[in-house]
From TrEMBL, chains A, B, C, D:
Lineage, top ranks: Bacteria, Bacillati, Chloroflexota, Ktedonobacteria, Ktedonobacterales
Natural source organism: Reticulibacter mediterranei
An MF annotation (GO) of this entry: transferase activity
InterPro entries, per the entry: Aldolase_TIM (IPR013785), Class-I_DAHP_synthase (IPR052899), DAHP1/KDSA (IPR006218), DAHP_syn_2 (IPR006268)
The protein's name: 3-deoxy-7-phosphoheptulonate synthase
Keyword terms, alphabetized: Transferase
Domain of life where this protein originates: Bacteria
GO BP annotations, alphabetical order: aromatic amino acid family biosynthetic process
NCBIfam families: DAHP_synth_Bsub, PRK08673.1, PRK12595.1
Domain spans labelled DAHP synthetase I/KDSA: 97-345
């Protein structure tokens, strides 16, 4: 259940509503509100509130509207907010801002190395992906690695290098954050906070990302074997904590065939478009784990309506410190950028025709 | 290991080779050969034959070439036959013949009802899918149903109706065969023998389909949770039994999220194109189980390079005796046909440009 | 919905009921009945029959009882038949008959080689497993193999060898049947018809096994990734076709970790005991694929209440033509037999105490 | 590769070794050592070090032994430490200390409510599980919940209640920690730090738990769809960070059948016993999600050799704030404790006999 606060509510009316809600729900923690679609809203697990209670809430002066949403996720549901959400990256920063989820534009291409290895590698890659037409630079400073003996990333030094790369190229930067106490420092340097597949249900991290003081958008990857509902509820944590700027990222789910690293579940893109207003992008690099499959699966991602791609690019994939097998070259990226534009163009033309007809 | 028989081998030389092979492999069953790419070939599990044995074989007059293929599948591997295979449907029959796997043409669209229900329903659908641009009529006469209490299809009567529909529309017909002893009768009426997901490892059925006297092509669906290797080995059964005309069909694999019936593994299309010379088509209806997702996933299937689609269409999906939830209307099919042509056109244009460059 | 025919119904009353049922259900195929728990019963997908129709049926002279069962499976459900079913193996044959599902006795141990390789190997193994305490001899004459180039079994010759082994040892024999037309010949030689995991949804085979003229029991293995419902519906096919003697066999399900061949789902045993009256045994050999894990997982299978085990045993596992890695020796089998008796004893003692208290 | 430091190494020799290692591995982070089996050891990803390098290391005065371990996990491998590890819980605290992994004793039973709800509920449950024979009290103060609108636990207040319950009952306490910065406060109150399935690859949390200043043991649950290797590498993070006291806990893996919450993979217990020296316990409550299956699956867990069980118990499961459906009553727990002792007794007797023979 979602309560939309009336924009003209007085602070007294607001306080009255809050205390009413606390009594009604027996909540031990303070009721928090969030800003979504130009309104302050409060989401509740309304399962226990009957029609009478809803009625009472609706009559409060502070309440503009009470919306009953039947899915476990509330604020992220399209049932609550029918218009698609556009997430702006790099706003008020020294870079070109980029919109993810703008259905009239070409898909947003995020590209860069798996891990930031050193200044030269990062800068070379950053310039190359910009040249190839990418809109956002990706690169890992903190790397979640299966083994403690694998390269763990450069940490804060990596963040500084990413900042420098933004200054140099004008590309906004997306990078992973792995623990709540690092959210602020990552948010300071990066333009998008990435939450990785292994942390999709790291709830303290989701809350921290939702509350980040820089209001950086969050790129939320799907968990290794997360259901659609679990994924949307993870997004709900972030939005309920105060940050409506969430981008979902499909990156393959675990399956039984070792031929590919994961199984890319492209059907989830149109399915999510029914269920949520949040934009969805695809990571064909982690999904396949094989660079030669990345261009084709990028094309398919655009074909199903993804709002963007996040792709691992390395100037020399064979020498990459991490995930070289799945990294493509800048030249391959350029083709992907070109093809994704053509495909979008074709699909938009078709949609326009359908609309006219 | 594959032995290509010399086209000028005498029957004496041939017999000599066969007896040598029996001795070498200790095989209790007669060595069988098959016709592939205009040559008679014999495939063996060559794991036990050493270099000396290979040498000896190579020196036989009956032998044109000995090819060592490292995958468990042999005849279906691209390592053995680098050129893509085109499968011709409806040859020498009273219908328009159709080529699956012709990379210079538009994708082949197979469409029709899940089950043949009666003459009116089938004829109405057949004419409608033809009108919409489909090339092949699909429809189940024998239906593998999870429960014995569900509609099991019209059986042989259904085959007759399908035959009539071919005569009426000129569309060749694909229909499922579920047991070895029915292969001949199904092959008599249908133009393609479909082997369903639940029968992908029904080895007697694969053998029977491989030996069908009408030389009908086989549409081999991927098993519910089959690996790529298992699937290709199932195809190998058919080809080794004498029928090189196999079309692979991805139809989704089992996974953990009930949101969709299966997970459509589109990555398998470009992956299979590396591993095998056989053409691959996609069934978005069974993969998703939701009609509203079929158009988008059809588009994505063409985008990854599928040679065709097989789609459930029903004039009135709500009244279908089986799988109505995943059936689309003829009008939706028409849009898919149109879109798949445009997309193929775009991709071929691009490929041509790449080739020139 | 299940209709129990009154034991004193006249053939006229019976015929009247049948024609009523055909009208009510609009069934195109004749209504078939089966014998279960000393009664003739007819199962129907009663979803479409309303209370009035049920009432009408109940009033027929030929009807003893109408039972509404809410699961998709009917005859195999415990809701229909609360008492556990005991399946007798080797009745009226020249061997010691064995009861699967007798809760007062020790678990039934079925053991033998993966494949029948030759007379010596089979006889040696048969005598050894008998000596070790096994009750039933297993061995494959027809082998479903992933690759056409793997050893496919001795076929009918293997059946003869199994028959001889029964004569020699007095152990009844279980062996796999892979196609409907072989059911009768396999049923002639074997005492239990095994339907393998890959054929769990081979519906013509299930029907044929249900109708086998020798009334041999059927051992139905769980499919590679079959749900409990799908498995019970496969059993329902056999029972509905006239054969109530079905033994379910858990043999592991497909998962993502290559460490073991499959994941043994032991929880399904107590779960099935709630849902069905059919007995359940476990195959730890195929489940794990690793002989060193077979003894421990055998013990656990007995601990969860399995009515028996089916285990691959080879006198010399290293030389086995198939699945040597998962075969144990007769000496290891002997320990399993001993331990399973002790464990059953302990659990029965405990149950007795609980009962007294 | 693991380097065991010589116990008599001087600090100069030690420093020399460290700088040699940094040069050899090009490591940017300081080489850390940990205490295991009474020795200081250093684990390295030795993949890049050749025989010559190994030789050089072996010759250092500070080095007692260089061990090459071929699995990606090193310190947790049985190849490195053949003797099983016993983990002591509640040492030097005001409670009865408990040993997990002592093969001569009965399995350790950990029991209590899913979530700490209030003082009365916790105290009542704590006394009841003690009375029933449990050795350790479990209870969640911080609850990882799929939805932000579900009860999230009492937090630090819950920790205080758990501390009080230990004082009252003498049972040591295990509770979950969800973020690195809470490790110290949880370690102050609890006797075992639980890391939940969703956090199995929360690497900062693993590191923090490994470094906790109270040296509390860590109960590491298997991730939702973690492979054995990934799980052992997660344990390796904790051990490599300085804490050798890790208990593995199997709690079911994700699969496709909604009948049970997860699939309990009991085969992993004997498999892990081959691969690691760490003790393994089982959580049948989360694995099945159905209280009626908990007693049977507890018995099976002991049968496969688990060193203990962790079970959800609630005095009144129907009113539980979380996971009531999977909670058993204290009376049911008592039977499980009794049965697990009898079964262990039987298995130890048998093992003794085998040993004598």
């Amino acid at each position: 259940m979602i309560i939309t606060i009336h924009p003209q509510a007085t602070s007294e009316e607001r306080a009255h509503l809050m205390s009413l809600l606390c009594r009604m729900t027996g909540s031990q923690r303070p009721i928090s509100s969030t800003q979504i679609a130009n309104r302050e809203v409060i989401a509740l697990d309304g399962g226990h509130l009957d029609a009478q209670a809803q009625n009472l809430l609706q009559q409060q002066n502070a309440v503009e509207r009470v919306t009953v949403v039947k899915t476990p996720y509330q604020l992220v549901s399209r049932a609550f907010k029918p218009e698609s959400t556009s997430v702006v990256i790099g706003k008020n920063r020294d870079c070109t801002s980029v919109i993810v989820g703008d259905t009239t534009a070409s898909p947003v291409i995020m590209a860069g190395p798996c891990a930031v290895e050193n200044k030269e590698q990062l800068m070379e890659t950053a310039l190359a992906v910009k040249e190839a037409g990418a809109h956002v630079l990706r690169g890992g400073a903190f790397k979640p690695r299966t083994s403690p003996y694998q390269f763990q990333g450069l940490g804060v030094d990596g963040l500084h290098l990413l900042s420098d790369a933004r200054d140099e190229t004008g590309l906004p930067v997306v990078t992973e954050v792995m623990e709540p106490e690092m959210v602020e420092v990552v948010a300071q340097h990066a333009d998008v906070l990435q939450i990785g597949a292994r942390n999709m249900q790291n709830f303290p991290l989701l809350n921290a990302a939702g509350r980040n003081s820089h209001k950086r958008p969050v790129l939320l990857k799907r968990g290794l074997s997360a259901t659609i509902d679990e994924w949307l509820l993870a997004a709900e944590y972030i939005v309920a904590a105060g940050n409506p700027n969430v981008i979902l990222c499909e990156r393959g789910i675990r399956s039984y065939d070792p031929q590919t690293r994961n199984v890319l579940d492209l059907t989830c893109v149109p399915l999510l478009q029914q269920l949520t207003h949040l934009p969805i992008i695809v990571d064909p690099s982690h999904a396949t784990g094989r660079s030669e499959l990345v261009p084709v699966m990028s094309r398919a991602s655009i074909a199903v309506g993804a709002s963007g791609l996040i792709i691992e690019v390395h100037p020399d994939p064979n020498t990459a410190l991490c995930d070289g097998k799945q990294s493509i070259t800048p030249a391959q990226l350029q083709k992907i950028v070109h093809e994704s534009r053509m495909l979008t163009h074709m699909l938009q033309g078709e949609a326009a025709l359908t609309h006219v007809a």
